[in-house]
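Pipeline run #58 for the internal structure catalog. This entry was flagged by the ingest filter as a single-chain record with no existing model, so it goes straight to prediction. Upstream metadata was stripped on purpose; only the residue string is passed forward. Reviewer on rotation: M.T. Logging verbosity set to normal.
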Amino acid sequence: MTAPFLPFALPDIGQAEIDAVIQTLQSGWLTTGPGARLFEQEFAEYLGPGLEAVAVNSATAGLHLALEAIGIGPGDEVITTSHTFTASAEVARYLGAEPVLVDIDPATLCIDPAAIERAVTARTKAIVPVHYGGLACDMDAILDIAARRGLKVVEDAAHALPATWRGSKIGTLASDATVYSFYATKTLATGEGGMVVTRAPAIAKRCRVMRLHGIDRDAFDRFTSKKPAWYYEIVAPGYKYNLPDLAAALGRVQLRRLHDMRDRRAAIAQRYDQAFSDLPVLAPPRPGMAGVPHAASDLHAWHLYAIRLADDAPVTQEAFITGMSGLGIGCSVHYVPLHLQPYWRDRYRLTPAMFPHSQRAYERMVSLPIYSRMSDGDVERVVSAAEQLLRT
């Protein structure tokens, strides 16, 4: 019997998540309410003291809110990387600002701090570093640039839960804000969702107001307060970015399972490392590897396992992905860089030569399945299929 197709990614949803959603349905709170409030509290407590967490309906929304809260506006420049999903850059355009795209460090696949330094101008107001694949950026270097040049830092941590940088959890550093994604494929999944984390009460307050139409009181506050529930005030032209309790119910359970799910991803990554060590591929960077500036004990979140085909690989990127699909294995590419996307390419007159490391990584890169509900048999199917194509 032919084995069923193994998708590139699947969420790890168990009975506890199902029960939590049912309880929420029975509670009468479907939109943002007590469940979202508890999720925010528990997420902040997980990261550590002195932090505030604001639940939103996507990481894109969170990045938009964070940049708005730190005052980004028309004419400002925001530095980020070309090697990312479009959300990392497009949120600056929402505010009339200009994203300035820079290359990655080929050793880490994260934004290159030296490229950030070269890109700073008198109009630069913020840096949006993207933690790629689950590996943290060189945050010491980035925060040093920001401090010396008077810049704000909003971390795009969509891949980075529960990664660490030199022993500190991403989200606890000296950045102005950190934004997580809880999309269906992420290490903590609520289907759609995200979280903004900050140490600055003013940023948290502004994000809370702007995530729900600029209303000065959350829906939960209005319907549980002793003040008249019908009364509210619009203090700014806000957005519709709130996270409903149904999603928060999933998030609260997933948060309790976070490290177990991460450990399973790490075990899969270790098996891939062993299996591919003598094949013509470059394994993903990780703490302890040459050229990677992390502490060897740092956690990699293992959101992605992105190999890069060597020059002597017997197949091209396209042929490898097509071959894997033919063998019943789903793969992907992260990412088609922004400098190749029509909007960004044409607006800013970008060329591959401006981003040699991102371009080369893109041309050789394939993301293999890595998610916590994969069985050992699933992992061995991926290994067997990859070996079949790469040993040809």
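catalog note: The chain has a mean pLDDT of 96.
catalog note: The radius of gyration is 21 Å.
status: ready for reviewer M.T.
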